[in-house]
Amino acid sequence: MFKKTFALLFCLIFGFVWGLSSGHYKVFPFSILKETKSYIAEFFPKPPKNRIYRPAERFFTSTAERLEITCPNDDPITFVALGQSNAANSLSSFGERDPEATAYQFYDGKCYLMEDPTIGSTGDRGSLWTEFAQSLSQASGWSVVFVTAAVEASSVNDWLEPESGYFDRAARQISQAIDSGLTPKFVLWHQGETDALSNTDPLDYTLRLKTLIEQVDQLFEPGLEPTWIIFQTSICRGLPNGSRQLVEAQRNVTKQHMRAILGPNTDQLGSLYRYDGCHFNANGKARIIEELRTQILDLENF
To answer: Is the pLDDT of residue 22 over 80?
Structure first.
């Protein structure tokens, strides 16, 4: 009798501890404990690890060989591209420049015909945005303008850390675009690989990304804040299957912020769409462009 009682008690205690640690149970008292953890974490997020930030020379800022044009005034649709390497200039090939497309890059108060590498982001290879901007322009007839400020290997917290300067760089370009009459309508956020590899707590990720959105929104006049398109992304070298928890955190942001919506799920693109296990090749770029273009056209009821 004693052995049976002991075994039953052991199973109950083990089940309680396992359920508490894994978060699988949603019944009392696990649901209350989980909500308590979330409440505490909101006020006491985990301190970030020490980081080495990308220096200014890692950003592509050369306009010497770019064709400057008068910024469009025909009610163009303006995007801001933020995130890490897949939102920067790290793709396998340059996008081809289509002279017929009304697609432009804004940087330091001036507009240029859009081409790779995009100005203002790190890296010197191809980007998602040049061919996307041209494709969207051709499909819609709109003028399309991009402000790009993505940073390779950046974590979500890096964008909140004043020492990194990442937010300040982006904020300066966004503010200049607004002052030039090019108020961004969409922010494209493609980031998550670094936080997935670092095993960032999903709740911390959600809170920090929401904070970043709020900081960017403060650059805009009330009522003119942009829609954030949050890509679902976590796959990179060392984590070939990605992180379901990190992607869930990205989804939670769109549930908790009225102007944030889910973008393409790039974790569905495996090795056939990446040239190094992380960054997209021509196949990956084409798939993302097609899906994102369709999403934007649907949002604009084109």
So the answer is: no
